[in-house]
Design goal:
With about 210 residues, the chain is an all-alpha fold. The protein has 10 helices and no strands. The longest helix is centred in the C-terminal third of the chain and has 31 residues.
Length: about 210
């Protein structure tokens, strides 16, 4: 394993983790609507489950998962339904003409609840293992030393921490919070569409 192959793993993961998707959009929305700490709690849940799927991929346990295909299907459907539920909640918020103050909104959801939400968003997406396998295969061959695998996996997890935390910190800045207050209904509506689309895709995918 060369430095170039390890760099390829890091670049591929950064693009995958940093690209706008349900998890990143959820972190952005919480950061603008509830504040930095709440967004960090949600991001912590996302990276926790992402790291768990990555560990399964890095240790070769993904092959074992194929023996439990039925359980994975149930997990995938449950994850899709959960995303649809989040989409419904976002749509309901978008249709609401009233906006609670940031203090009340922040107090309405606890940090542990947001952490669990982040975990559940990734727990219901077993395809994350395939994404991790694709990323790791760029620089980690089947005969790679344990140290090389650990370097690739550990580096990606650290990048994930930085990326998700950056979303939370950037979108909780004052200008973006003011922008969210003006465009809340449009943002929530977009989030509802993203969650609904992701949930439907997850349920219908094979």
């Amino acid at each position: 394993m060369t430095e170039h192959s390890l760099l390829a793993v890091y670049v591929a993961y950064s693009i995958a983790a940093g690209s706008p998707g349900p998890s990143n959009l959820a972190i952005m929305n919480v950061a603008m609507g509830r504040g930095r700490r709440h967004a960090l709690a949600l991001g912590a849940g996302v990276i926790t489950m992402s790291a768990a799927w990555g560990l399964i991929a890095a240790t070769g346990l993904s092959a074992l998962l194929t023996r439990y295909a039925q359980a994975l299907v149930i997990l995938k459907i449950a994850g899709g339904v959960y995303l649809l539920w989040l989409g419904f909640k976002a749509a309901r918020s978008a249709l609401s003409a009233q906006q609670a103050s940031s203090t009340k909104a922040g107090a309405a959801v606890s940090y542990p609840a947001l952490y669990r939400r982040g975990v559940l968003m990734h727990l219901g997406n077993p395809k994350s293992v395939l994404a991790w396998l694709a990323i790791m295969s760029l620089g980690v061959g089947p005969e790679a030393a344990t140290g090389h695998v650990a370097a690739a996996y550990g580096g990606c997890v650290m990048l994930g921490l930085v990326i998700f935390a950056s979303y939370a910190l950037l979108f909780s800045t004052e200008p973006l919070v003011r922008g969210y207050a003006r465009a809340r209904r449009y943002i929530e509506g977009t989030l509802a569409i993203v969650f609904a689309g992701a949930g439907t895709r997850l349920i219908l995918s094979r």
